[in-house]
Design a protein that fits this description.
This protein has strands spanning 7-19, 22-34, 47-60, 65-74, 77-83, 86-92, 95-106, 111-118, 125-129, 142-144, 150-157. It has 166 residues and is mainly beta.
Length: 166
Amino acid sequence: MNVGRFRTTGAELSGSLFVKQFKFTTGVTYTGRDQGITDESGINAFAFYPEWQLNITKSWREQGFTLALFHKYQGELPGFALNGEEVVPTLIESYSITDFTATKNLLKKRLNVSVGIKNIFNVMRVSVVGAGGGAHSAGSRSAPVGMGRMAFLRLNYKIAPSKNKD
């Protein structure tokens, strides 16, 4: 088996809607990946999985304040693992990641301060169905998908004043 040859194919559809001070952006992708496993293994050449994203942003332009919510759904991810000499199909369970950010512009938009939480629901590992337990197989029957919940503070300072009026 050669995992060095990695190909993908798929489709993406996305769009945005602006309603007063709100911006809604959503998108869906359907991706297939082929990691060079031959048809003799019994695994389809391309294993497809869905993803869905939603961003909701509320802006108070005059006050220079923005709230943003980001949500991503990762569908079940088919794959493979070695169980001894045998290639076995696996399935990583679906999961969702949600982030929140508040941003304030200060000093005539020269200072941008953002605070937020990434991975609000603290998703770190998901189950892998069909994984074996050998030393070089899929192992622990779970896969890491995130670093856990994180709070952050970001400061951006523009040395040159903004020429933008909005």
